[in-house]
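Page 37, top half.
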Amino acid sequence: MIESSKPTMLDRTEQAHCTVCCCTLANKILMVLFMVLLIFATLFGNLVTLAVVLGTKHFHTPQGYLKASLAVADLAVGIFVVPLSVYAEVYLMVTDSAPEWTSYNSQSVSFHPCNIIGPIFAGCTLVSITTIFFLTIERSIAVLRPLHKDSVITRKRTTILIVLSWVGSFFLAVCPIVFSSEIALEYNSCSRMCNYALGTIGKFPSQAWNILLLFPAFDFTLLGGTVVINIISLSSIRQHSRRRKHLAESESQSTTKPTFSDIKAAKTIGTLTVAFTVSFTPIAVFVVGNVLGNKWCNFSFFAFWILATNSCWNVIIYSVRDQKFRLRAQKLLMPFHRKNTTKT
């Protein structure tokens, strides 16, 4: 989301052709193929998730609502963010010159595609982090306080939290360009997507610096809290499993312990947290390196696109960890499988 390097696509034509993803025609084709496959994987996986969650009464729960919100955020990346990069790269590969708008930042023209795509990517990333945090809170209450789960976690409260997370995340996403005239958006030739950057060449002014720090501060705070809560929940699950092996469960004990489905869901959310942390860590390393003055052009490409691939991981995790989700998804896809079998 944050990129402090100044040259844009056409200003850095030589560098653009020398990055590891674009050194040769074969590399360019592989890069575009990867982006196209990412679009299809993101759309397919998250549409399946939405169909399962919205079309199955069993998933009409606070947890299901949060998973649907996460799927919508991931869908937006596949619909808006990645296709713009595909267009720019295919245009560059076919004509051997980048689209005209990539040679300017958003301050230099009246309309720039990155004015829309940049905040969408940043906002959806923040929504994903916030949603995973809410999922972790929801599961921790189910595991640590099972008797209070239904009274504390309601669909109405969850819906309000989802709306607030979207509004707050996109507010943070537009803050850099709304509250600072020194920050612009550009299509960066290193990351191959829309990034925030300084509108003028030079060191970071203090105001712009403080605004850009909102992103890592927000992300690291929520991710850190999410990891801590997951550790507490999983530790409680482990202790419960040990007690269950050694003690005969009385009727009163069975009413206060977390259910098997709650334990299973908590482990699934823990897996989601690990996956997102792994995908976000390269961005964290890149931002720190950028602050220290390192360009890391090649690493920038991998960092941003590893984060983008996180948009298609969730459905895989659900399918592996959640048997009910997997069975429902199989039922939804069965008619398409039968049609293909009939044709062959």
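Page 37, bottom half:
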Amino acid sequence: MGIGIEEKKPLLIQLNGQYYDIADFASKHPGGAKVLHRLAGEEVGEFIRGEKRIMGVRHEHSEAAYNMLERYNVNAIQKGDPLIESKTGMLFNVGSLGTEYWHWIHQPYDGTLRLFDSDLLESMTRTSWWVVPAVWMPIVILFSMISIASFSAATDVYNSVLLWSAWFVIGVLTWTLTEYSLHRWVFHWKPSPHSPNQILLHFLAHGLHHKTPMDGDRLVFPPVPAALIVGIFYVIYSNTFQWPVFCAFGAGKLFGYVSYDMVHYYLHHGSPRPRSNLHYRKVYHHNHHFKNFDVGFGISTSLWDYVFHTLGMGPL
């Protein structure tokens, strides 16, 4: 873990579709900082207008309060930011942020950033959501069929399907632990503010996503680098398990990955029915981005957040 990085966390609230970073104001708030922290990441219009209670209190704010709030508008703060407004590739300049990097990536920008000067390289950083199932689901189906056929050489079809199902589910569960572990201990590793290379590595791994969480073409993992990772696991698992077990387990883990990428995309761009499970997961993940990025690491499931005591927050 990097050392010396400053824990300057944004405190984001939303009003009429605009985000405000009120971290510097919280201690001055007449109603106390605790109220603002409780509302972090939330749309606060009803509370400011006095239409809804928070922590037992209802208060209609004055025009002066609205004027004061505008000083903390994230769009206004980001106006003139050379990394955001650059028309050329900004990727290799992100390391220059130094001690400001951690705070900068957690002030979300509702847009996209140009990473490379080259149009070709830039296009390779963008992937439409449907590419992921189109590339990987045929492999999931193929390896599932191979597994069942291989099991059938030693037992009947019914038991072959049962064996495939069991190892497939184990593969899916293994992916959920992999997903959690990557998100918590790799993607949220804190780079040293004094190392431009560490900052660059973190930005590529996950910092870009927290900076531009609504950039739909950079939400799913591109198939080319994914293929390299899949290839590494292929070598490991095929030399660990018997062939039919490997095919079932590998198909399950790959299916888990595809499901994760699709769920993650939907949580950012979908509109689930209120009070449904997907609505809860959308708010849960939204709060990871805008309320507290140190909890709520599970995307497709909260199972491992329960196990490792990093449970995030759902709807108020």
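Margin note: Residues 157-187 form the longest helix (31 residues).
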